[in-house]
What we know:
With 328 residues, the chain is an alpha/beta fold. The chain has two domains: 4-179 and 222-246, 3-Layer(aba) Sandwich (Rossmann fold); 182-221 and 250-282 and 301-322, UDP-galactose 4-epimerase, domain 1, CATH 3.90.25. The protein contains ten helices and 13 strands. It has helices at 13-24, 55-61, 78-81, 87-108, 148-167, 193-203, 225-237, 254-265, 288-294, 302-322, and strands at 4-8, 28-33, 46-49, 67-70, 112-118, 170-176, 179-180, 209-213, 219-220, 223-224, 244-246, 252-253, 270-274. Helix 1 links the parallel strand 1 (4-8) and strand 2. It is globular and about 60 Å long. The relative contact order is 0.14.
Amino acid sequence: MTKRILVNGAGGFIGGHLVKRLKAEGFRVRAVDLKRHEYSESPADEFIVGDLRDQDLARAVVEGIDEVYQLAADMGGAGYIFTGEHDAAVMHNSATINLNTLEFGRLAGVKKLFYSSSACMYPEYNQLDPDNPKCSEDSAYPAAPDSEYGWEKLFSERLYLAYMRNYGLQARIARFHNIFGPEGTWDGGREKAPAALCRKVAQTASGGEIEIWGDGLQTRSFLYIDECLEGIRRLVESDFTGPVNIGSEEMVTINQLAGLVMEIAGKRLTIRHIPGPLGVRGRNSDNRLIARELGWKPSRPLREGLEKTYSWIAAQVERAASLGGSAA
């Protein structure tokens, strides 16, 4: 019998790509989100537009489901997460979705649940040195995330593990590190650094100027979407619960990231550094645990994914310009 899978957050970037991957593998997929995917038609067997904070909906969508991939969350890039203006909504909305998903999933007899946590749950005190951030899975405690988004992720990790201990559900938990690629948010304020920089470079003529928050020396690693999906599927099919990092170990400064995008675009631009929300000073995925437990870790270079992402975003910018609009 074909396994029946529910993807929460299927209208989002990672969720949308995950539905395609699961369908390609031959599963029956039910997709749920507040909205349909903005950039491509979902191949899901059924796509339910609805709010997973609503108990009636959350109860209905898990009926007849074998596995749940829970990616639905109130989230965005630094401009959304780190201003502090959305803290209550981020914590309330995401926690409510996870509480509903677990409780109604348990009652419906769901066998396994994947939860997408985030590297934002790691302690800020281990990420003050941009050259030597510590993000091994065992460094999570004493807890001190730099945002309420991170605190909610940490709470929800513990929630999934508690349900696993008390009710026998099988949980699989991954901590994502800056996943990027085509068909993701690229404007409007919730986009993340790779998409924002691709958009800015695409919109700016050679010789022009782009803005970057802070001094640009803050470090991050960025993982292309296809590698993220491979990590998710390997984790779910394994006997390992996690939490485990799914991210790249190719750490770059934001200035270096901007430089890579400029090279790909064939443009010479100057950078103007301006005040703005930054998050931690340094972050990089530690992939020792995933290599040991799953016999795998991401390996494709950042530039390869950036080339594909820039090409897609440049096409979106051109399309928006041709329609008489422009992304801010």
